[in-house]
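User: Continuing from earlier, I have the next pair ready.

Assistant: Great, send them over.

User: Here they are, in order.

Assistant: Folding the first of the pair now:
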Amino acid sequence: MNVEQNKKKMNQTIIYPIFGTIVTAFLLTFIIESLSRVSLYQAFLFLGQEPLLFFLNFSVILITLSISLFTVRRKFFFLLIAVVWIILGIVNRVVQCFRLTPISAMDFYQVKEAIISLPNYMNTIGLVFIALVLVGVLVLIGVLWKKIKKSKRIMIAPFTVLLTSILLFGILFFTATRDNILQKGFDNLRDAYLEYGFAYCFSNSIFERGIEKPKDYSSKRMAEVLKQIEEGKDKLYTGAPAKVQNPNIIMVQLESFFDVSYLKNYTFSENPVPNFSKLKEDYPSGFLKVPVYGAGTVNTEFEVITGMSMKYFGTGEYPYRTVLRSKTCDSVPYNLDKIGYHSMVVHNNAATFYNRNDVFPRLGFDNFDSAEYMNSLEYNKIGWAKDSVLTGEILKALTSDTNRDFIYTITVQSHGIYPSDKDVNSRIKVIPDSKNLAYPDNLYKSLSDYTNSIEYYVNQLKETDQFIGALTEKLSEFKEPTVVVFYGDHLPPLSLEQKDISLDRHSTEYAIWSNFQMEKTRYDLPAYQLSAYVLNRLGMEDGLLTKFHQRCFSDTDYEKELKLLQYDMLYGKKYVFDKKNPDKKKDMTMGVIPPEIKDITKEGDSLLISGNGFTECSMVVADGKRCKTEFVSDSLLKIPYRQLDGKQIYVEQLANKRSVLGKSRAFLYQ
């Protein structure tokens, strides 16, 4: 074999594969970052300002491409992996047009739900187009599989690229972590993807899941923790408990709610939250440390309901989408159930959002009153239900039974993303202190657009604050002792940096209102201690984690033992419960007033369905077939007439016009 042939062989088996893979990985990294940031310029800035992080992402992609070089069909798999990365980048861009958070591995747990919900976001033409694209992609893969010929197996290039990419990743990761350029956990996925890069963040979400088994986890260690809890004394709240027994407890989780007086460099024509400000002055209150920023409501929700900390779970993980899809979890509702409480959720949004209708029965709730069971809903300009409806729904829930109630209320009106167009009718005006203020130019075209978004947000806050005032006014007249805990779930999705606000960006505030006397205090705490603190103030200590927070929160090994408890309860052998699961999934009902058919009469060409509990999400099912249903009122539905003598008719409540949340008892038409 002559020199030219050796050179050609070296080029084909070593040089071209190595450099071709490196160049492709670089281009893919740049293209994906451009898609993620919606800007070629921003991708160049990422490369220029954060080269270490850019090449960290490059090394992740390079590792995946290098694997294809080991196969005899390396050209096919190389192309396939490259296309997958491009598709992920495109899907991420499209997904963020509909929601705040970028895609992560968590989304692939929800493929079925995503397919079901597609008709809610796209018309028939769009759905057909997607179907054709998917079929086209599958056909193309089949054609390429046949057309692209096998190659001789090579060894030097694959090992060179793989080892180099792994070594590069290790060096860059170590350097970025050591210099605090890269954080281990992400409090906000949207910001993390922009700060650290798509490939790294997405890959990280694949491998980090659940709670890592503590090194000292054992039956003996858990017995020690239990003994410490039982022998401990109250430390979380040491004042005098309220002089009431088992009051109604209402938690109100306020979407993206915070006092904008903490926002620097902007002036507001009036305080948008006067009622909440008054509560902070007159009642127990404080800062609340939350696990997320700008999005991720359900993780704050999870901490408050369970008393568990999100810091021990995987990066970007939502327990609602992982462990709670199949397991029950110790919680405030389960613990209050033991002393006769009836636990309900009131939420003016879709029941299926974040799988809440599947998760809440595993958290011990007896009833879920979602938007599909509410009437008189009004919506803001970006489609979120207004919070004013919640006052009536909470009062309805309180009077629906004779038990004491635990009512977990979730607002939604001030949910982002906020429009950037000017609304001349806004009551509250926002004025930047300078025309040269910095703003998130990767998301907004100008300071004026950013100011308009803030202005829209504070006017939504105003209306949510009016709901707070209306609820407390009504409950002041309520005869049963009742306490209401108002708190923000996270700061608004306005891409606020720490320098932009005068409070920690992981902090919101809470205030505890009651129609009975409670000692006024100012106390700051994390979200996973909030319920234990409230119960402590009421002289209640039901629940293992509740007792643990109340009695052990200042202990030296508090955080280590909290992780032990969480692991044991969710992933371990449940030593603290004698190796048994004490919490069975509840047979949760939907709606405070479920649909009921009382009579059916014929009127012209229609059948009138009389009853109660009907809403615009009600669908009549006659003889096993859904009928075109006209909503007339909460007591009347109308369907086209057809012969149904001797047939059974019932009413379904539908989420997103498809998913059945519940149905009425069958009515025999005669």
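And the other member of the pair:
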Amino acid sequence: MFVKVTKSGPRRYVKLVESFRDEAGKSRQRVIATLGRLEAVTAGESSALINGLLRVSGQP
């Protein structure tokens, strides 16, 4: 798994992504979770990012 920054319009989002191979053996990527807007994370609001990571890991 890795963290990927994507762009949608003027905003950028932080996503947790994993790589896998499909039935044909081709490499693909699947989004596990969207962790929030990058602007919020860089502005010091990292609690949303931490909450997103906890949500993905299955912890309350």
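Worth noting for the second one:
The chain has two helices and three strands. The longest strand covers residues 11-21.
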